[in-house]
Amino acid sequence: DVKVTQSSRYLVKRTGEKVFLECVQDMDHENMFWYRQDPGLGLRLIYFSYDVKMKEKGDIPEGYSVSREKKERFSLILESASTNQTSMYLCASRTGYAGNTIYFGEGSWLTVV
Amino acid sequence: DAKTTQPTSMDCAEGRAANLPCNHSTISGNEYVYWYRQIHSQGPQYIIHGLKNNETNEMASLIITEDRKSSTLILPHATLRDTAVYYCIVSYSGNTGKLIFGQGTTLQVKP
Question: Residue B16: its pLDDT value, please?
Fold first, then answer.
């Protein structure tokens, strides 16, 4: 089975801390995505990567950066966590080919206090 | 990237068909329509996707209008476990296509 694994299911961090959220997929997918999900706002795209070392901003990139040094791994970085970044973060991946299925991880619940 | 519009919420009686509409009037010729659902606290679950023909699998059917500006997801015999938020997504088929989610439809299946 295809798997998208997010390293941490639940995290609690302090304001100002640097936070890393890791995502690994095992299907050699070209595209990987990071979303955040908040009540009433649905899923909002933060960043996506269409290849190693390639990235593109989504709708809400402010306060976040990403890293994709290897094809299977896509990291979301909060340089200085703030309380308004408390949210559920979802990673997804897919191949770059037409009509492919998109696979999601189980989500990481981040609380910034 | 095309965006989608869905009703905020819908109810359906258990055992009846649930028909969830999605408007994607700005879809372009090479964009696919995907449907996902999400049960609270879990990652979205794939349901079905299509380009222009109607599609059916063990979970659902997808009806895409001829002009491709809208689609309907059909759950033929809804159960209480189908209560979830359903997302319709339009995605460019190429390598650099973003995935843009709408607000989704909260489907409540009632006994």
Answer: 97
